[in-house]
Amino acid sequence: MIEEKDLIRGLTTQEAERRLKQYGLNVLEEKEKLSPFKIFLAQFNDFITWVLIAATIISGLMGEKADAITILIIIFMNAILGFVQEYRTEKSLDALKKMAAPTAKVIRDGKVKVINAEYIVIGDTVLLESGDRIPADAVILHSSNVMVDESLLTGESVGVNKSSRDKENFLYMGTVLLTGKATAKVIHTGMETEMGKIADMLQNIEEEKSPLKEKLASLGKVMVAICIVICVMVTVLGIIRGNAPVDMFLMGVSLAVAAIPEGLPAIVTVALALGVSRMLKRNALVRKLPAVETLGCTSIICSDKTGTLTENKMTVKAIYYNNNIVECGDRKSFKGLINSTILKKIFTFCNDVNFDFDKKDTSSAIFGDPTETALIRAFFEDSRELKAFISTVLRTYDIPFDSNRKMMTVVMKERGLETCYVKGAPERILEKCKRILINGEAKPMTDYYRRAILNNVDIMSSKALRCIAAAYRDTGITHSKSVENDLIFVGIAGIIDPPRKEVKDSVLQCRIAGIKPVMITGDHKNTAYAIGKELDICKGIDEVITGEELDRLSDKELSARIDKLSIFARVSPQHKLRIVKILKAKGKIVAMTGDGVNDAPAVKEADIGISMGISGTDVTKEASSMILMDDNFATIVAAVEEGRVIYRNIRKFIRYLLSCNLGEVLTMFLATLFYLDPPLKAIQILFVNLATDGLPAIALGVDPPEKDIMYERPRPKNESIFARGLTEKIVFRGGLIGICTVFAFIIAKMKGYPLQCGRTIALSTLVLSQLIHVFECRSEKHSLFEINPLTNKYLIGAVLISVTMLISIIYVVPLQKVFDTVALGSTQWFIVLFFSGIIALINSVYLYLRRK
Fold this sequence. Notes:
The chain is α+β, with helices and mostly antiparallel strands. The protein folds into four domains: 4-30 and 103-203, Calcium-transporting ATPase, cytoplasmic transduction domain A; 217-282 and 639-707 and 717-851, Calcium-transporting ATPase, transmembrane domain (Up-down Bundle); 284-311 and 500-631, HAD superfamily/HAD-like (Rossmann fold), CATH 3.40.50.1000; 315-496, 3-Layer(aba) Sandwich (Calcium-transporting ATPase, cytoplasmic domain N). The chain is built from 34 helices and 26 strands. The longest helix has 41 residues, at 633-673. The protein starts with a helix and ends with a helix.
């Protein structure tokens, strides 16, 4: 089977590297990214920080130099922490973008290689198939039924026909091959392409924003207003009581800075980015951050069968030929079939695999679609025999396989004569056949033969065999679609694709988590049912429906039945889209997998569109929210689990930050309300913010999953982040922190301790109660005494750093002077530990009673 493309050697690796240096990467220029220095400066571009800097200047001018210097140090430390978070997030997202970059098939050193599209150079020979995004401007060398979507360049939604024989033989970067296949030579790359000329338009497309981040940013603005009002009240009441206006002004500003969770949206981004990195380690590449939020809501996973639920390791197990099924285990009978030249020709020639004849064994010499490679391996063991078999023929015409036609056709020239070979779904092939080959003689296709074929398809399908039919035509050959008529039926190959071992456990995990797994496949009803039953996706045949049966149902009828269906067999991409729309209309949160270009609409329509990293086309990948790097169903379930973990961790640090900030505000407000001296000085309030808000909150963002994370029903998509009692927990715990801190301060006063000592006790109580609370925030159901603190080492490290900071400002003499603290004795520490610990005890009792 000699094609001209097989004679093309392409560029050598050395030449490609030389041209890459000469012409540069095949990429469009991007908007200039923020430098690390600008990212650092951006940390100061915040209203509250401006106020704090102004307060620092005023404080310095009024002689409070120690306070001014300390506040400046804290501002810079907060900025450094924010910079590290943002810079690492930016870097991790850049790395993920590179991994999601499109790939391309090129011929290098005479072999087909898959490379990152940015490494394509002028002169490269690229191989393109239906669904591929064209990686650079190129001219067609060979083509078959090529139609290209050039709407990105022209705005015209109608596909454009392309051919090597026409003037319209140019392919442009960024456009999509809708149908057919082509071999093309690259003539322009990067900014020299037509796409490069309109690169500015592409650069202005904004990245998709996280809805959760936007909601929290809005919440932050509301909280700013509330906190400023409270801080103004504290400041005014303090001045009325006779406190120094400068001290009260600094205290009010410091309290506002401590109380407002200005870093909340940034921490959400960090948590999402870290979660995305964890997902990548589990072979799920998230393309859009908002998808992480939606993953935890998933209630239905619609999955393809081949390669996702199964191993995609195809092996021919049986062949139907001469009105008889021959099992591959029967080597003597099967050997006769192997030597059946016509069957051998159909399954070998009607094929788009690639070859590496340097390898002797056919298992390593053939690579391409697993079904097609299995068909050739069934007939050949030695690659030299295969090479000799295909070397005497030439493909002159073909009609590529697509998921709607479910068949592929080639016209081969052998010894001056042309023959048409066809393979595909049995029912589609039967529609085109008027005769059947029996014992080497073409006989009329009678009802008897037709029924026998369909019955044997049912028998093979019930054994989970995927059936591929073969037919041919040797007269009246044309180079048009009409060549697919008047065919002679030859036989059927039954291919087994065993289920992935890990999928059965993942299906069970789905059911426990309240997620319904659904199989959507183009395979025969019986094949799908056999695999589905083995994986526990369905219990009975009544849960299976075919594409033909779907067509007979109205949307209303399908909506009424769809909850009872678990397998959709013999479906087209149009059916997939319809299924997604009806499930969404019923309020389901749908994850949908796809690989072909025709799957892209369904993948895009789904709440979570999932494309295949191995078998998926560029178009489907770009329509998806997530790419499965291993095409494995278990990876989808793992990604859903990670989505739930990320969302729960975001709730954890929201609970922690807001309750702690509320406690700080209440401490100062209650003291002012009851005419007490301010329990904390401005510098001490800023220290609390520095010691408790940063590292512990980030450590909560990487908290490992709780054991029951996949035992809950999916949460509603539009559920508030504060749902399920989170507001109640924040108010209750924040109130306790504030009240206990004020009580510790009052006890210190009653014992006659100096004001400086009382403030040190209040400061220590406030910090330690928050650091104890961070461990409580690890679970919404379990008390502090039911949580293993050792499972999050980052959190332990963050808390130890905060405690060390607290001890330092209490016992290191130079820091004592800066933060106006004194060394505490054992009795004073008892007061601190009692009021810090009593909060956790009260909260644990509250949780126990609430569960009861």
